[in-house]
Design a protein that fits this description.
It is a single chain. This protein is α+β, with helices and mostly antiparallel strands and about 675 residues long. It is about 20% helix and about 25% strand. It has 16 helices and 35 strands. Strands 23-24-20-19-25-26-32-31 form an eight-stranded mixed sheet. Strand 15 and strand 16 form a beta hairpin.
């Protein structure tokens, strides 16, 4: 059965290379083994491809056989790179190089010191053989020497082969060793070579899509092993210098580099205990872990998912596509309690974050994580007030930056987190452009959400990005439905509200967002910022139009509700953008602050003055707007009999001088 699966894999790989103009940067593990001969694993080698460019990194035993399985000829190789000059990495270089000379192709050959010396020695040793073979086509060695460029790589100047940018750095090993980074088409792949802990590697691999790393310390199936011990240190043995990383070191470097996928290769045994090895790596690194096999193709799937810059999987299993119609009942039970601590003025929400409705299929493509119970506790203001300034979910404003806050928590204890830590990336440098954050609910962005507009974080926490369909499946469109609490303490309702916000008898209507999709094309050049028409792929594709709909910039408004008959400010979860709000009108609780946010000083520096100082239009924070609605006798003050909503509920606290009126100074003064 295993041989049959291998045959299928080989056929698929051949089909891959039969396709021309591959516009995605890919890596194929040509050999995943070590110096130890293994019929299941060839010696170390990786093939990097983009469009019509192919680069082979290292050439261990079995490289030519596996290239043949891909139907890839040596004449198709544009580059031959060495990580270092150990025999298990160079074993098949001589025949590949000579075939390259005979094949009339142009080749770049590069690596650490001695690379050019090795080439010179091969040419000297095999000169007669090469001359003989070339003579059959009327050529000589002098004719073909111009067909290759050989370099000993020093310094830090990038190397370009085709459209692939190659950067490199020295890493710690028993001899001089280079790690390589390949950037093309907005994607990045890093190959570490053999190494021990090296500060230079996380710098080179920063935010890379894939880090292919020496598997030192990996645990063999059926054996126990000390994860902190080096791969080359056996019991009773002492060595002057370690040759390979241990799991602590590899996980630490992957964590520091913030890579999306860690791929372990260079195994000196056949079967890896993936669970035991992953458990050790998980102590530091929580991204996706893959275990290389010969002819494995990366990426495993076209879509890439990460949430807060983190992805996760235990292995390279083929996960199913999620189906919006898929509704699976969890064996875990929803547990949530919502209590009021009036003495301390807080509402306390405790939850295991398990929804009280069916969910989609997890793990799935785009979101390979399993739902698990959490231990969550949130404290929010029991009597919230409108703040002087808007606080944004993103740290740079309403539509850009890194996530700073979870927006709120549903009545079932599942959090609303509308933001995503995914951005447009510079095509040349792969650096994220924080001005252009991806919109998680866009049809052009696949984060593996289920029919509830929800998916699962690497720690197993299920959370909503937008309308929680299962939660509101049986809602009554003739009344307002409370669906949650925002981080600032104000309530969240699902799409319906009173026609007259201050009159519960005015009938219920579906409230309309004031955001619209921009017209025309984005201003970017397609390299450092996105171009193309505004399609909804990015948050900045939308713009707020004051008074266009029923709701303000934070997708909320003030009015009476079933739970607040005297009135309050409330947010609306809508089916259209922005669904869950991207900003707060009040002051959010620190319980909802997330690690992606920057400190407040930097946040204020980065926000534009117009956005930062802008009054909350179409909402009560403007005293002039309050007077229009409440000042019946036009005396420029609001009496207790005139006050409505949240102002009426907090009248005594606002009326600082106890004269029975609220003035502009009192409404803008912070408690």
């Amino acid at each position: 059965m295993k041989n049959y699966l291998v045959l299928i894999l080989i056929c698929l790989c051949q089909q891959l290379f039969a396709q021309e103009n591959n516009n995605q940067l890919t890596a194929i593990i040509i050999g995943s083994g070590s110096p130890k001969f293994n019929t299941e694993r060839s010696g170390p080698a990786v093939l990097i491809s983009y469009k019509d460019t192919n680069i082979l990194i290292d050439m261990g035993n079995g490289t030519q056989a596996n290239l043949n399985k891909l139907n890839l000829k040596v004449k198709d190789l544009d580059g031959l790179l060495f990580t270092h000059h150990h025999l298990d990495h160079n074993e098949e270089f001589a025949p590949i190089f000579i075939q390259s000379l005979l094949g009339r192709n142009k080749t770049t050959i590069a690596g650490p010191k001695q690379t050019t010396l090795i080439i010179d020695n091969i040419l000297e040793i095999y000169e007669e053989d090469i001359e003989y073979r070339l003579s059959k086509s009327g050529r000589s060695l002098s004719n073909v020497k111009t067909n290759f460029i050989a370099k000993n790589l020093t310094g830090n100047s990038p190397l370009y082969i085709g459209d692939i940018k190659i950067t490199y750095t020295s890493v710690n090993h028993t001899i001089e060793t280079l790690a390589y980074r390949f950037d093309a088409g907005g994607e990045s792949i890093v190959i570490s070579g053999d190494l021990t802990y090296s500060k230079s590697l996380p710098i080179l691999a920063n935010n890379a899509d894939y880090l292919i790393m020496d598997s030192g310390g990996a645990i063999e199936l059926g054996k126990k092993r000390n994860a902190t011990r080096s791969n080359n240190n056996r019991s009773g043995a002492t060595t002057k210098e370690k040759a390979h990383v241990n799991l602590t070191e590899s996980s630490q470097m992957a964590k520091e580099a913030n890579v999306k996928n860690l791929v372990l290769t260079h195994f000196n045994f056949t079967n890896v205990d993936e669970d035991a090895t992953s458990a050790e790596i998980r102590k530091k690194y929580i991204g996706k872990i893959l275990y290389a096999e010969d002819l494995m193709v990366l990426p495993l799937e076209n879509e890439v998912h990460s949430h807060n810059s983190i992805s996760h999987s235990h292995n390279n299993e083929h996960l199913p596509e999620i189906k919006n119609s898929s509704k699976e009942k969890l064996s875990l039970q929803n547990e949530v309690s919502i209590t009021e601590d009036k003495k301390n003025g807080v509402r306390i929400i405790k939850s295991n974050a398990i929804p009280n409705h069916t969910v989609g299929q997890f793990p799935t493509k785009g979101n390979p994580n399993t739902i698990t119970e959490q231990n969550k506790e949130y404290s929010i203001d029991l009597t919230p007030t409108l703040a002087n300034k808007i606080t944004f979910v993103y740290d740079l404003g309403i539509d850009k930056g890194r996530p700073s806050y979870v927006f709120g928590v549903a009545v079932n204890g599942v959090k609303f987190e509308p933001s995503a830590n995914e951005y447009f990336r510079n095509i040349e440098t792969n650096e994220p452009n924080y001005e252009w954050t991806l919109e998680p609910l866009s049809e052009e962005v696949n984060l593996g959400e289920d029919y509830n507009n929800a998916h699962v974080q690497p720690n197993g926490e299920y959370h909503y990005h937008g309308t929680p369909s299962g939660l509101v499946a049986n809602f009554d469109k003739n009344k307002m439905t409370l669906v949650g609490w925002a981080a600032d303490g104000f309530p969240m309702y699902y799409k319906m509200g009173y026609k007259d916000p201050m009159d519960a008898n005015s009938g219920v209507i579906q409230l309309k967002s004031s955001y619209t999709l921009k017209q025309g094309e984005r201003p970017g050049n397609g390299v450092s910022a996105p171009n193309g028409i505004y399609s909804g792929k990015y948050v900045r594709d939308y713009e707020y139009q004051n008074n266009y709909g029923d709701l303000d910039e934070c997708n909320g408004r003030s009015g009476v509700t079933p739970e607040f008959p005297n009135g309050t400010y409330y947010y609306v979860v809508s089916d259209e953008f922005p669904s869950a709000s991207r900003c707060f009108m009040g002051t959010p609780s620190n319980d909802f602050k997330i690690g992606g946010g920057r400190n407040q000083t930097q946040q204020m520096q980065n926000q534009s003055p117009q956005r930062e100082e802008k009054p909350n239009e179409n909402t009560p924070p403007s005293f002039a707007n309050m007077l229009k609605r409440m000042d019946a006798n036009n005396d420029g003050k609001i009496s207790k009999s005139e006050a409505k909503g949240n102002i009426k509920e907090n009248f005594q606290n606002r009326d600082k001088n106890n004269d029975g009126y609220i003035t502009q100074n009192e409404i803008t003064r912070r408690n």
